[in-house]
Design a protein that fits this description.
Largest sheet: 7 strands, mixed
Number of strands: 7
Shape: globular
Length: about 240
């Protein structure tokens, strides 16, 4: 997706998605997997790249992290800021691009990026920037849309039909994500998946109870992939 298209994305899209049965169930599975793999964050300095309306940033701040967050979309940043303020949770929000992070080298213990690489022009550059701002021994957690899933086929079809969100999105396999991470000097710890059902509300309700079981055993076929990597400790 072009930068201009991302800047036009409206926060109300997230609201409508989460109010639907499919969105509510899927969002919960994805968020639970992210938080499980991120682990304890109390006292850590955390950066959420491409924060959207602040759902993950809020969860991390509520868990005790000192959170900074960036997005290219000013309306998303305002929605995220309001989300945290409504719960009296602190966070720092900056309008910025993932390919040029406005932070000092080795500033953060944890960097997260959810559905960011599929939309940026230079994913390698974005990952290099995330690795740069990580402290030695710090953790990077990426959530991305898997290439080999029914959802990816559905999204590609919608893109071919002209849907602005999916027209230029790039979906990646777990192996491709690992290659991107190792290419910027990070050590991959694990890759997990979620959302193995088709994009239908009844299917989500029926199969969500077994989705976590599948995610512990499979990566291929998952619509949502989470990669965890660390920055090697400097000798």
């Amino acid at each position: 997706m072009s930068a201009s298209a991302l800047m036009e994305f409206d926060p109300s899209v997230y609201d409508r998605w989460r109010r639907s049965r499919l969105g509510r169930i899927t969002d919960t599975l994805e968020q639970d997997l992210l938080l499980e793999l991120i682990g304890p964050v109390a006292g850590s300095r955390t950066l959420d790249v491409g924060c959207g309306d602040g759902q993950l940033a809020f969860a991390l701040a509520k868990a005790g992290a000192s959170v900074s967050a960036i997005d290219t979309n000013a309306r998303m940043l305002e929605a995220a800021r309001q989300r945290l303020e409504a719960e009296a949770v602190e966070g720092r929000f900056v309008e910025a691009n993932a390919e040029a992070l406005p932070f000092d080298t080795a500033s953060f213990d944890l960097v997260t990026a959810v559905t960011v690489l599929c939309f940026v022009n230079r994913p390698d550059r974005a990952l290099a920037e995330m690795a740069r701002v990580l402290k030695s021994g710090g953790q990077l957690v990426i959530g991305e849309l898997g290439r080999y899933s029914i959802w990816a086929f559905w999204r590609r079809l919608r893109g071919w039909l002209g849907h602005p969100t999916w027209r230029s999105a790039n979906f990646r396999s777990a192996a491709e994500l690992r290659d991107l991470a190792t290419g910027v000097g990070l050590a991959v710890q694990t890759t997990k998946a979620a959302v193995f059902y088709p994009p239908l509300g009844w299917a989500a309700a029926l199969l969500a109870p077994v989705d976590r079981w599948l995610g512990r055993r499979l990566v291929c076929g998952g619509a949502f992939l989470v990669l965890v990597a660390t920055k090697p400790i400097e000798e």
